[in-house]
Amino acid sequence: MTTLVTIPMSEIQSLAPMPVSVAKLARMLANPDVSFNNVARVIEFDEALTANMLKLANSAMMASRTQIKTVKEAVIRLGTSQILKFVVAKHLNNALSQTLKGYELEENELWMHSVASALAAENIGQFLARPIPGLSFTAALVHDIGKLILNRHMNRNLVNQIKEKVELEHITYIEAERAVLGTDHAKVGGEIASNWKFPKELVDAIQYHHEPDAYGDVIIDTVHIANNVAKLIGVGLGSEQMNLFASEEAPNRLGLTTTSLEALCAKVQTNLVKAEELFRGR
Amino acid sequence: MHDEPAAAIVVDVADMKVSNQAGDIIMTHALGSCIGVSVYDPVACIGGLVHIMLPASSVSPDKAKNNPFMFVDSGIPIFLNSLCKLGADKKRFVVKVAGGAQISQGEDFFAIGKRNYLMLRKLFWMNGIIIAGQDVGGNILRTMYLDINTGRTWLVNSERNWDI
């Protein structure tokens, strides 16, 4: 028996609404040639964003010797590709930190998984002969955002149905989710991002992060691998455990070797400990 | 997590803990493709648990220097030596292994769990160490416990609770 979960638009809209300036920033940063001046101008229009940006640029993590006083200096210091990720991370910090019973994720586990994925997307470029678009960092950070909404519709019975399907039919967790719920966390995530007016590249990366081979897109491939890296280092396994698809083609397309994959895992683990200390004071 | 003794000593990812205190329980959370190894000397009642992420330190020698427990080849020898330093005898080691899970629909590229296990087997074989019990592979998550009083080693996930 299939239970179909329908998610009203109002619920999609209710999830941590993004300030207009963030959507604007996201669309601007989809263009790799965007100017520091233009980015700074968007941020300056938003007081809260400006304050956050200056605080971040002057934080211990950035290890700056001179004090950053203007948004433009902050943009230059952080780099355009990091800015969107930081803004979105700050905005979603609380939402991502909650316990998700419907996915068997304890408090902070989805946060850790999201940050580990973002770190993987940021660091993968070091092992490749090609550049990785900065939007990938943000896409990796929010790739599981759909779980926040689907979690509210899950109950023990549905989780068990999904798990049973995975086991009996040897399918991935997201396939079982689709079969039982009639929708899945990637699809819902795409709807949320599209409601945030995020650029199409970002929406697609969230929506298709479990099926990269149908698209062959560099951002989707990066998010797909980043999610697998987070799983491989054991962060945020939850009820999905290791029941997912890992494309052999995605690393091929990007030119990632197995040795580099392992070095990337080591790097993400080390940086994750630092990120946790920074954000959680652990 | 389920059935977690209140005073368990937690081993983080890429970390180890050893003990000779009879009341101690050592545990590590959520082994996916990572590998957990428990070693126990039943005569001296000394034991330890290590949580290792990756097979070979050659992929990142600087990280191995900072944290040898990230890798099988750099971590296991130090782990075994720490037990001997506490007074355990290598000849009496009871070794148990868990984890090394795989992404379900993936081929060799992402098979870090399998590579971890193979590297561990090779290292043990070269050192004449026998694995007394294990539960490895599959697509599941495992939390691992070792009771220093008895040497009992068991695994827990959201579905069940079983000894190895």
Summarize, please:
Chain A has 282 residues and is mostly helical.
Count structural domains of chain B.
Answer: 1
- Give the strand content of chain A: under 5%
Taking all Cα atoms into account, the compactness measure Rg of chain A is: 19 Å
What is the gyration radius of chain B calculated from CA atoms? 15 Å
User: How do the helices and strands follow one another from N- to C-terminus of chain B?
Assistant: EEEEEHHEEHEEEE
Helix content of chain B: 10-25%
- What is the class of chain B in the CATH system? Alpha Beta
Task: Give the biggest beta sheet of chain A.
Answer: none
Taken from the alpha-carbon principal axes, the silhouette of chain A is: globular
Largest sheet of chain B: 5 strands, mixed
What is the fold-level CATH name, i.e. the topology of chain B? 60s Ribosomal Protein L30, Chain: A
Strand proportion of chain B, as a percent range, falls in 25-35%
Question: Can you describe what's shown?
Answer:
The complex is a heterodimer of chains A (282) and B (164). Chain A has 282 residues and is mainly α. Chain A has a domain of 186 residues: Hypothetical protein af1432 (Orthogonal Bundle), CATH 1.10.3210. Chain A is built from 16 helices and one strand. Chain B has a five-stranded mixed beta sheet, with no helix packed on it. Chain B has a five-stranded mixed beta sheet with strand order 2-5-4-6-8, with helices on one face. In chain B, strand 4 and strand 5 form a beta hairpin. Chain B is globular, with a radius of gyration of 15 Å. The mean pLDDT of chain B is 94. The chains are: A mainly alpha (282), B alpha+beta (164). At the A-B interface, helix 14, strand 1 and helix 16 of A face strand 7 and helix 3 of B. Strand 1 of chain A pairs parallel with strand 7 of chain B, so a sheet runs across the interface.
Write the layout of secondary structure elements.
The complex is a heterodimer of chains A (282) and B (164).
Chain A: H1 9-14, H2 20-29, H3 36-44, H4 47-57, H5 71-78, H6 80-97, H7 109-124, H8 135-141, H9 146-153, H10 156-169, H11 173-181, H12 185-195, H13 200-207, H14 218-232, E1 245-246, H15 249-254, H16 258-280
Helix pairs in contact in A: 2-3, 2-6, 3-5, 4-5, 4-6, 6-7, 6-8, 7-8, 7-14, 7-16, 8-13, 8-14, 9-12, 10-11, 12-13, 13-14
Chain B: E1 9-10, E2 15-19, E3 25-31, E4 35-41, E5 46-52, H1 61-66, H2 72-86, E6 94-99, E7 105-106, H3 112-126, E8 131-136, E9 142-147, E10 153-156, E11 161-163
Parallel strand pairs in B: 1-3, 6-8
Antiparallel strand pairs in B: 2-5, 3-9, 4-5, 4-6, 9-10, 10-11
